[in-house]
C-alpha cells in the first residue's frame, strides 16, 4: 500500500500544475516564501525622452520557488490577492524597495524614483502610515516612491480609495495610473483623480506603428495626459519604431525591452553609475 501511495505521489508531481492540489501547494509555498526569503526584486529602468537618461525604475516582484525555479508574478500575484497574502507581501515589497534605494544613496549613487505596484486589497486606511513609516525607517523623502495603481483598484471602493490616494499624494508620494486604457474609468472621473502620471498599457504600444487604431489610441492618450497636465509614460516598448513614434507623439518617458528587461539590483546598480540604459 505504501509503495502504491508513493507511486501516486510521483504521479501528482507530474501533473501538479493542472491540479486543485497544486493550487493549494502553491498557496502554502507562497505563504512560506515570505518567511524563507525566496522573494526578490527586479528593477526595470524608465527612460526620459528629453535626455535619454534613466530617471526612474519600476520594481517587480520575483519568486525563486525551490525545486521549480522562477515563478512569474502574473502567476502568483492573483493567488496572493485571493488569499489576502498580498498585504504582507506588499509590506515586504515596500520595505525591500526602501532598503534598496537607501543602499544606493549610501553608495553615493543618484537617488532615482522607484515605482511600486499596489493591488486593490492593499488600499486600506492604514496604507499611507505604513508607507510613510517605511520611508522614515530609511530616512527617504516621499518623492523616492511612485505608486502604480490600475483602474480596477478604483472599482472596488472608489470613494475610500480616492481618499487614501489623496492622503498619499498630500504626503508627497507620486501616483501613476497603470495599464491605462484597459479599464472602465470614465474620462470625467480622471479629472478628479489625484494622480501625476498616466501609464499607457502595453496592448496599445504593441501595434505601433503598423496598427492604425493602436497608434491613434496611443497618440490620443498622450494628448489627454498633456491636456490634463499629467506626465505620460509608455510600457512595453520593444522596438526603435515604437520609441520614435511615442517620442514624436510627445510621450515623456518609456519603459520596455527595447531599453532594458527588468534587472536584478546588482545589474541596475551599474546603470545608476552611468545614468544610461545598458
Ligand atoms: P505590470 O505592472 O503591467 O508590469 C509590467 C510587466 O511587463 C512586467 O512583467 C514586465 O517584466 C513586463 N515587461 C516590461 N517590458 C516589457 C516589454 O517590452 N515587453 C513585454 N512583453 N513585457 C514587458 P512581470 O514582472 O511579469 O509582472 C507582471 C505583473 O505582475 C505586473 O504587471 C504587475 O501587475 C504584477 N506585479 C509585479 N510585481 C508586483 C508587486 O510587487 N505588487 C503587485 N501588487 N503586483 C505586482
Ligand atoms: Ca506596473
Ligand atoms: Ca503596467
Ligand atoms: Ca500592462
TrEMBL record:
Residues 23-276 form the EAL domain. It comes from the Bacteria. This is EAL domain-containing protein. It comes from Rhodocyclus gracilis. The chain holds residues 561 to 838 of 841 of the full protein.
